[in-house]
From TrEMBL:
Keyword Nuclease: yes
Occurrences of domain DNA mismatch repair protein S5 (ranges): 208-326
Family affiliation: Belongs to the DNA mismatch repair MutL/HexB family.
Keywords associated with the record: DNA damage, DNA repair, Endonuclease, Hydrolase, Nuclease
Entry superkingdom: Bacteria
Biological role: This protein is involved in the repair of mismatches in DNA. It is required for dam-dependent methyl-directed DNA mismatch repair. May act as a 'molecular matchmaker', a protein that promotes the formation of a stable complex between two or more DNA-binding proteins in an ATP-dependent manner without itself being part of a final effector complex.
Official protein name in the record: DNA mismatch repair protein MutL
This protein's record includes keyword Hydrolase: yes
Full-sequence portion shown in this chain: 1 to 338 of 658
Species this protein is from: Limosilactobacillus allomucosae
A GO molecular-function descriptor: endonuclease activity
């Protein structure tokens, strides 16, 4: 007998979970992204004990047919891409087929789902083991309840921070997802208290107001920029409205929230010398581009992306920020900015 053997699927999923599911907020991110990919108009996130009690995400999207439900929890099982060609033009948030098996490998999961006009299904899976698959009464959409997170991976459980910190990660991700998707109504309720709700009417400024307050929302300045490759749109704060961290800048690429040092720097550069040292603007900016120009398959959680033509995009972004401030006479229009 050789020494080498293939890991069981449960163990393989737990290892993958280490990359995809870091903390309660990662679960919320994955589940809300699944709901978005399923064309939901409304997504409710209901959490107790900063995610250690329970995480529930309810959507009114496409639902999953009963015969597909167990497959949805298999590793590398996805309805979103088929070939390598698709990988280079991903239009959906998900495509790796890792979230559901990862979550189910480290928690107790009950999914209730129904597709249009079909009888619903309730599926129970725990620690990667299927417990039951039954008919259920359900409206079209999907309702996932995750409890006992990391019950079988004590190291992970220990690594979690205080409930206060985990809650702030949860609030942060829900806010970013809502900013990235102003046409979807997203709510967040924690321990019975509604902490956030967006209307889903497509008005980004209203989502900003729901997060940062009506005055901030009202004071934001629109930004636009376009060249044959990129279309930039969003809002930025006036130079006098700043924060101590650059994390109040939300960047989305094709409505996917991403982190990019280079693009964040470009936004800040657009303010020229108008920002005080150590102060950063608020901004919510989406960049629409042909998916072939972006590789989202860099990081399992897809937070980082690789962009072709990043330098061109950065200068377009800087110009766009500069011009909207200059248009409002908030910075001198040097006229020399080409
Ligand atoms: P991925 O999103 O990368 O495809 P997941 O493990 O997150 O992988 O989900 C697996 C599959 O389950 C998805 O491709 C999709 O077909 C289905 N699915 C998951 N969540 C939902 C949902 N909320 N509504 C409809 N279908 C879903
Ligand atoms: Mg997914």
């Amino acid at each position: 007998m050789g020494k080498i053997h293939q890991l069981s699927s449960v163990l393989a999923n737990q290892i993958a979970a280490g990359e995809v599911i870091e903390r309660p907020s990662s679960i919320v991110k994955e589940l809300v992204e699944n709901a978005l990919d399923a064309h939901s108009h409304r997504i409710d996130v209901v959490v107790t004990e900063a995610g250690l009690g329970s995480i529930r995400v309810i959507d009114d999207g496409d639902g999953i047919a009963r015969s597909d439900v167990p497959m949805a929890f298999k590793r590398h099982a996805t309805s979103k891409i088929e070939s390598a060609r698709d990988l280079f033009r991903v239009q959906t948030m998900g495509f790796r087929g890792e979230a559901l098996p990862s979550i189910a490998s480290v928690a107790d999961v009950i999914m209730t789902t129904a597709t249009k006009g079909q009888e619903g299904t309730a599926y129970h899976i725990r620690g990667g083991e299927e417990k039951s698959l039954k008919p259920a009464i359900a409206r079209q959409g999907t309702d996932i309840l995750v409890t006992e997170l990391f019950y079988n991976t004590p190291a992970r459980l220990k690594y979690l921070k205080s409930p206060k910190t985990e809650l702030s990660h949860l609030v942060d991700i829900v806010n970013r997802l809502a900013l990235a998707n102003p046409d979807v109504a997203i709510s967040f309720t924690h321990d019975g208290r509604e902490m956030f709700r967006s209307a889903g009417n497509g008005r980004l400024q209203q989502v900003i107001a729901a997060i940062d307050g009506v005055n901030v929302g009202r004071g934001m300045i629109p930004v636009h920029g376009e060249n044959p490759d990129f279309r930039i749109s969003g809002y930025i704060s006036r130079p006098e409205l700043t924060r101590a961290q650059r994390s109040h800048i939300t960047l989305t690429i094709n409505h996917r929230y991403v982190r990019s040092y280079a693009l964040t720097k470009a936004i800040i550069a657009g303010y020229q010398s108008k920002l005080m040292v150590g102060r950063f603007p608020l901004a919510v900016i989406n960049i629409d581009l042909d998916p072939v120009l972006v590789d989202v398959n860099v990081h399992p959680a897809k937070r980082e992306v690789r962009l072709s033509k990043e330098d061109q995009l950065a200068s377009l972004l800087e110009q766009a920020v500069y011009h909207s401030l200059a248009n409002q006479n908030l910075i001198p229009d040097a006229g020399s900015q080409a």
